[in-house]
Write a structure and sequence with these properties.
alpha+beta; globular; about 650 residues; 13 helices; disordered C terminus; eight-stranded parallel barrel; disordered N terminus; eight-stranded antiparallel beta sheet
């Protein structure tokens, strides 16, 4: 019966699609096709090769889209490639957001206006070092769901999303006078355990239904027959990805395994590499990138450089790899355009190579955006998270015998507070443990407001705590980003298994969803600060909020400007400026030390408010909050820690992270 209902639901969606397709017929003069006889693409009947670069609109503020795209155009690119993260547009089931920084249609129109073609990576899964690979966390409400498969429970939501999304992009197809020349279906599916051809067939039919038969649909997989075996499907043009420094000809031979004829395409030529907290900032020499790019272009192949502009994982959007290694806020990627969109030496090396094969636009390249060091800004401690729980939890407490996960509480990002009482006296250090490694991902432990220690996924399983029977045990759990690649993407957050105190399973929990972002945006913490006495210094190590404010200096032209926020003496936390969630900071682990602050979130006409949530150890001393300051600087530091773990033997192959 359930299957019949699902089929009827899909039929209704299809009928709705027919009734809401006010698109004009394709223009016969605009075509983009694969020429299998001559191993090339043809645009408007003429042989065509794209030289593209990746930029993720979700990682660059809308304010800067034009700046970044113009710089890409001036580098000699004739196309850009971008991911569409499903969870960025449907954070809550059935509610879609395509406004502001999420206005995909405006981004596509801007590409068209500048003269850049678009290679759209539509998903539904994208990887991209993005939370859960772009899949919405609310899919996990059904515990038995099999993601990225023909599981009907999964497909019903894919179909609903694609009905909304594919109808939005259809007017922007090249055949409809838009910039989109090709659309990727799924992503690197050959690296996923399921190997479900029925799933790929379902997506192929879905995309063809909404987008028509003229659009080029393609897949991307690693340059190895192993990945192409499960990642490719007849009707979807198979492309490969590989990085610099290897054998280019051999890599393209792997593509020929799936596509004996047609254009050679590297959909992800790595100009840099991703970072993880606690490891060195990845850097690839410009000479290596330029040499391999030259070899690719000399073969007449099509290429997309991943990334050309990396951008920023603002808020909570970073992903993680398995074994659990979360990525930092910066997605600089050592790309030709820096995180702040500034042309690097690598940019000009690539531009020079491109100039050997096509004419690059005349005129000067747009310069780096100006930066300004606003200096030290004093902040004052407000109160602990536990002390503000009733203000931060809009939905109120939920009682449960055993812990509930984030998804069970219908919270998908950020932080939750778990509260219970100690069932026994712990006069001596008593082990509080997560025997099944069930802390996802980092838990800050307090007993009667006194900080006890940290439980961390895969790293710290037990700690010793002290307290009396009946004392309040508070556990603030941080979701540090969901796994974005491999079999571990079914990544629950919170306390996903029971905790034990000595031999006792802890029960009787009161659980609070924390709406910190909304509370900050509404100014609740700032209002609370007025008239409140400073918190005594004894609680300095408890997860707490710190507030500060500053004005943009008068008499200096062209302010505000971009800047970077530094945390001298701070350990780990989250920061907001004027309600905008800049992301996570963790200088104690690194490699990222500074956070990028785009100019558009700053104000010259009003006071700028800073909210810092420090989770571990603030530098503030005494009731006067001595040394309690953050600092705005004009230069980023992305590799400034000595707390490195041993780095894996890096190859330019993201598949090494396969769980």
């Amino acid at each position: 019966m359930e299957e019949v209902t699902r089929r009827m639901t899909r039929a209704v969606w299809m009928l709705l699609a027919l009734s809401f397709c006010p698109f004009s017929p394709s223009s016969s003069s605009r075509t983009f096709q694969i020429d299998y006889d001559n191993d090339c693409f043809r645009k408007d009947g003429k042989e065509f090769r794209y030289i593209s670069g990746s930029i993720h609109y979700s990682r660059v503020p809308r304010y800067y889209w034009k700046d970044r795209l113009m710089k890409m155009h001036m580098a000699g690119l004739n196309a850009i490639q971008t991911y569409v993260p499903w969870n960025y547009h449907e954070t809550i089931p059935g509610k879609y957001d395509f406004t502001g920084d999420r206005d995909l249609e405006s981004f596509l129109k801007l590409c068209n206006d500048i003269g850049l073609l678009v290679i759209l990576r539509a998903g539904p899964f994208i990887c991209g070092e993005w939370d859960m690979g772009g899949l919405p966390a609310w899919l996990l409400q059904k515990k038995s769901i099999v993601l990225r498969s023909s599981d009907p429970d999964y497909l019903q939501y894919v179909d609903r999303w694609m009905h909304v999304f594919l109808l939005k992009i259809k007017p922007f197809l090249y055949q409809n006078n838009g910039p989109i020349i090709s659309v990727q279906v799924e992503n690197e599916y050959g690296s996923y355990f399921a190997c479900d051809y029925d799933y790929l067939r379902h997506l192929l039919k879905l995309f063809r239904y909404y987008l028509g038969d003229e659009i080029v649909l393609f897949t991307t997989d690693g340059a190895d027959q192993t990945y192409l075996k499960c990642g490719s499907l007849q009707g979807l043009y198979a492309t490969v990805d590989f990085g610099p420094g290897g054998n280019v000809t051999k890599s393209f031979k792997a593509q020929r395994y799936a596509e004996p004829h047609g254009p050679m395409v590297n959909s992800e030529f790595y100009t840099g590499w991703l970072d993880h907290w606690g490891q060195k900032h990845s850097v690839i020499k410009k000479e290596i990138v330029a040499k391999s790019l030259d070899e690719i272009l000399a073969l007449g192949a099509n290429v997309n450089m991943y990334m050309f502009e990396g951008g920023t994982n603002f808020g909570y959007w970073n992903g993680a790899n398995s074994p659990y290694l979360p990525q930092p806020t910066s997605y600089d990627y050592d790309a030709p355009l820096s995180e702040a969109g500034d042309p690097t030496e690598k940019y000009f090396s690539i531009r020079k190579v491109i100039g050997k094969y096509k004419k690059v636009p005349a005129g000067p390249v747009l310069p780096a955006t100006p930066k300004f060091a606003y200096g030290l800004i004093q902040v004052k401690k407000l109160q602990s998270v536990a002390g503000l729980v009733n203000l931060l939890s809009f939905s109120g407490p939920v009682k449960s015998v055993y812990p509930l996960t984030f998804v069970e509480m219908k919270q998908y990002f950020g932080y939750m507070l778990y509260r219970t009482t100690l069932p026994i006296n712990c006069t001596k250090g008593t082990p509080l443990a997560s025997p099944q490694n069930g802390v996802h991902d980092r838990a800050y432990i307090m007993v009667d407001g006194v900080f006890q220690g940290i439980l961390e996924r895969n790293k710290v399983i037990p700690i010793n705590i002290t307290g009396q029977a009946g004392s309040t045990l508070d556990i603030l759990v941080e979701n540090m980003g969901r796994i974005n690649y491999g079999g571990g993407i079914h990544d629950s957050k919170g306390l996903v298994t029971n905790l034990t105190l000595a031999s006792n399973i802890l029960t009787g929990w009161t659980i609070y969803s924390l709406n910190i972002d909304e509370a900050v945006a509404r100014g609740y913490l700032t209002k609370l600060q007025k008239g409140q006495r400073l918190t005594p210094p004894a609680e300095v190590n408890v997860p707490s909020f710190y507030l500060g404010a500053f004005k943009i200096p008068n008499g200096i032209p062209d302010l505000p400007q971009d800047t970077y926020l530094k945390f001298p003496g701070w350990s780990k936390g989250q920061v907001w400026i004027n309600g905008f969630n800049l992301g996570r900071y963790w200088p104690a682990r690194g490699p990222q030390i500074t956070l990028y602050v785009p100019a558009h979130i700053l104000s010259t006409s009003a006071v700028n408010n800073i909210t810092v949530l420090e989770l571990e150890n603030a530098p503030c001393v005494g009731e006067l909050n001595t040394n309690c300051a953050v600092e705005f600087v004009d230069t980023p530091v992305l590799n400034g820690t000595s707390a490195y773990t041993s780095l894996h033997s890096r190859t330019f192959n993201r598949y090494s992270w396969h769980a």
